[in-house]
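Entry for the shared binder. Reason: the reviewer on the internal report wants the predicted structure included alongside the sequence.
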Amino acid sequence: MSDGNYRLVFQGQLVDGFRIEQAKENLCEIFKIPQDKVEQLFSSSQVVLKKNLGHEQARGLQQRLHKLGLVTSIQPMVGSAANSFQQTLTEEQATPPTREHQAPNTVDAAPREFPFHFLGQGGEYFRIWIVNILLTILTLGIYSAWAKVRNHRYFYGNTRLSEHSFEYLASPIAILKGRLIAVGFLLLYILSEQFIPLLSLLLFLVFLVALPWLVCRAMAFRNYHTRYRNIRFGFDGQYQDALKVFVLWPLAGILSVGILFPYAIYRQKQFLVQHSRYGSCHFVPDFDAWGFYRIYLLAIGMVVAGAILLLVPLIGPLFLLAAYLLAFAYITANTSNLIYNHSTLAQHGFDSRLVFTRLAFIYFTNGLLILVTLGLAIPWAKVRLARYRAECLSLLANGSLDSFIAAEDKRTSALGEEIGEAFDVDIGL
């Protein structure tokens, strides 16, 4: 799409941690916007902040507004918006730094950005969650399979991309079968450990041999029962390849005293991405092992720093706890960014922008809230985390997304629904 064919849209959503009064004050102070204009901005369900932007220019302005507390989306210029706020941000105000202002030289250099959105609400999900808990207790765990389906359908259904939601299609009966098998195996292992230790060792070896098959089966089940715009996802990983990445490489990591653990994780992520597909089109990973080593080395550095600060009297343990939290958030955020930003689906890419400090703040405040409410705030915590992860992810479409969807629909329709019989039991990994 050519330069100047994008608009920046605000739909009333704020960055986690920002209050609406704070966001209004930031707009008034930084952009010198009159108070009545700011009130107009927040009173509309959808407002076009500025039209006729180049993609890089829109991205730069989006980043500036994100720092002020506003979550915005970059959309192609199609028709007219419900409300226009374009004149509020003057050309001088909206122009980001020089590097951000540079527009792409060609049409193909500016992919169309389709941001993900999560529309769920904590109070709405609480009603589903509390019923799931009560029925699971009353049925001695049997209802947990139905609870899983309800949870997944809520979160999938509230995750939107290009005005379309994802769907979760699995049957609770299939999940219940898998859970009964898993619980039976677990009970057998626990009893054998108490009364026949040799049998427990044998069962552990059986589990190691079966683990690659379980991973492939679980991924195939989950992907097959996930659908977007009437096209299912898929997974075609094979046992022999899974054996290497989920058993042999982790064992090599143990034997190398942890040196090969990042490489083992790299191989696992690469396996999961390259064998996943949307319709008939496979995802293609382009990340390397060194990216994982950088992430884990820096995370280890954080933990070591926290361990050193442990020597500080009284508050030393708090430093160590904070270091662990930051390291976990750093690994989670940067691993996700690395995988998404270096993977493609046909000609389309992804843009993941998770910030580990923000993620750590969400983890900490969510945990504190759950502790204070004795667990009742879990639904709000889950919704908050899902919303943040969605707002930091976009699909970068090179070419028409509708054409790609239509082409995949034609290619996959011939496969038929009968292949679903191969994935009728959820292993529950």
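Summary line for the report: The mean pLDDT is 84.
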